[in-house]
Amino acid sequence: MECSKVKQTLIEYGILTMATLILVVGVHVFKFPNNFSFGGVTGFAVILGQLGALSASSYTFIINMVLLVFGFIFLGRSFGIKTVYVSILTSVALSLAEKWFPIAQPITSEPVLELIFATIMPAVSSAILFNIGASSGGTDIVAMILKKYTSINIGMALFLVDLFMVISAFFVFDAQTGLFSFTGLMAKSLVIDGVIENINLCKYFTIISEDPEPICDFITKNLNRSATVYKAEGAYAHHPKTVILTVMKRSQAVQLRNFVRRHEPGAFITITNSSEIIGKGFRGFN
Predict the structure, then answer these.
(1) What is the pLDDT of residues 208-255, one digit of tens each?
(2) Strand, coil or helix: what is 275?
(3) Best CA proximity match to 60, nearest among 39, 36, 42
(4) Is this structure's pTM higher than 0.85?
(5) Do the beta carbons of residue 218 and residue 262 sit within 8 Å?
(6) What spatial distance separates the first Cα and last Cα of the chain, rounded to whole Å?
(7) Where do the domains of the chain lie?
């Protein structure tokens, strides 16, 4: 059991590290050189980097460390260790990237292309982090503090902060940078939602069969899943039927569909997409 927990922890932190590095590449290579100012701490750092004496990476490091201190003060034990790890790793990795791989200007002459990567890479990273119960820190820490001590609508408050930074980009940089930043802000949440939904996408089967035993055996023995079975009756001929309900990951769904087609071509199958399955073998089961 202990070995299994250690393995699970190592896998989780491997995923955290991978997701953080995706975030760092997106920010360092595409966001900072173009002065895109959407998205939490890094967006604020872009503005400060233009107005202050330090670089955007340096401001990111400073702000994240300050927010971590506030997190420990106001949240204590409820402050997630995964968020601390990601926040520190992000700050350190951005500082090292600035030192080892400095990028003074955009790497292409296509700002729209760079905006796509500046939006998608951090959004994919955030989706992966959210999916395993972590976050990138930064303004998420502010949200946790506000949620604990106030009744403010957190989502709206953070959106207004992001919007303020985007508007600032119009004055600090130029209209083009401001418009690109606004576009990135609008696209970010859509990408995060889409990635999370696809990560968790499962297939919900309703199978109406006259010979359910082989199908149930295949589900339990070959796919290592379970199913709910109940008796039914056809409305037209009143023949006895068996209804099998089960949920599969996408790769397993293909196997089950093909098996049912081979074993009982006359079986009636409906397959529905679902991204929110809670229970044993899926998310939310302790």
Answers:
(1) 998 889 999 999 988 888 899 999 888 888 888 999 999 988 878 889
(2) coil
(3) 42
(4) no
(5) no
(6) 15
(7) 2-199, 202-274
